[in-house]
Amino acid sequence: MLRGQLGNQRLLMIGTTALIALGAAAVFAGATGSMLVDEMRHGVIDSIFDDRRALAERHPYLLPAGVIAAVLGGLAGLPLYTWAITRYRGGERPWLLPAPVAVLGFTAGFIAVVPAWTGPLKVGTRVDPTFHHDRDWGWASWVAYAAPVWVPVLLLAGSALTVRWAVQSARARAASVRERDRLLLHGARVAGEVTEVRVHLSSDDTGSSRPAGATVTVRYPDSEGQNRWVTRYTRSTDLRVGAGAVEVLFDPLRPDEESSIFVAFQREPLAADWIGAKSR
Questions:
Q1: CB of 166 closer than 8 Å to CB of 104
Q2: With 24 labelled, which of 6, 69, 214, 229 sits at a CA distance of 20 to 30 A?
Q3: What does the UniProt keyword field contain (predicted)?
Q4: Residues 261, 220 contacting (CB under 8 angstroms)
């Protein structure tokens, strides 16, 4: 089924649209977060008797609209992108674009609203325009006052780290795919046997648990007939010890090289079904 969808331009368009929706949702989320920070900051640097209103109070429709857009875009964008691009690539894992797009979008939305934040009536003083009981700022007020500088700096730093992670992970994935494709042409491919299955559980909001993948140990013979073992993580949770179709792909010249060992738990596996050392 996935072979027939490889390179389908309609799927690429769906995935691209979903990624744009995810980015837009992140922008709305960032703008919403910025309005909330402005409201908290206003309460720290100004007196409670200051009748000026923060941005979220001046435009009360913006906050719920931003939350709704962020939630809907996020819930729809990521699953749809993953579904479409996985099929477009014939079963290969989708490109690592959602994380940097989401973080950059959030940062952009947050920073865009910063110039509209409510400023203090007087720097260094919480001015009481009603009873004139002014008070000097404490350290928390000074930290809040400087928030238009240090919060964007932190967000930009986080964005840079996320982009760096995505680039490094993409390079590692590409190297693993190249090695897999090389071994499919020139490597050794043998039948294996499941010797251990450790099912991982995840809990939902109700406290109930459900299977969420498994760590599987497979025994297989190398080119000299010696038994070897390899452990891989798979999302499948129906594997059983001593049962099922298992194949192992490896480099006979470098049988100990972990990055050159791939395992498939399907009959007639697609190229994307081979699980490498860092395929989780």
A1: no
A2: 6
A3: Membrane, Transmembrane, Transmembrane helix
A4: no
Higher pLDDT pick, 97 / 207: 97
pLDDT of 165: 96
Q: Are residues 164 and 207 in the same domain?
A: no
Task: Give the three-class secondary structure for 68.
Answer: helix
Picking from 182, 203, 237, the residue at the C-terminal end of a domain is 182
Q: What is the pLDDT of residue 202?
A: 81
Surface-to-core class of residue 103, CB atoms within 10 Å of its CB (0-12 exposed, 13-18 middle, 19+ buried): buried
Q: Rounded to an integer, what distance in angstroms lies between the CA atom of residue 96 and that of residue 171?
A: 10
What pTM was computed for the model?
Answer: 0.84
Say if 150 falls within a structural domain.
yes
Alpha carbons 168 and 85: distance in angstroms, whole number: 20
Return the amino acid letter for 222: D
Nearest to 110 by CA among 77, 68, 148, 145: 148
What length does the chain have? 280
Residue 279 lies in a domain: no
Structural domain boundaries, residue 125: 2-182
DSSP letter at 207 equals S
For the stretch 230-234, contacts whose Cβ atoms lie closer than 8 Å and that sit 24 or more positions apart, written own/partner, are: 230/192, 230/258, 230/261, 230/263, 232/263, 232/275, 232/276, 232/277, 232/279, 233/275, 233/279, 233/280, 234/265, 234/275
Ordered strands of the 227-234 beta sheet: 193-203, 209-221, 227-234
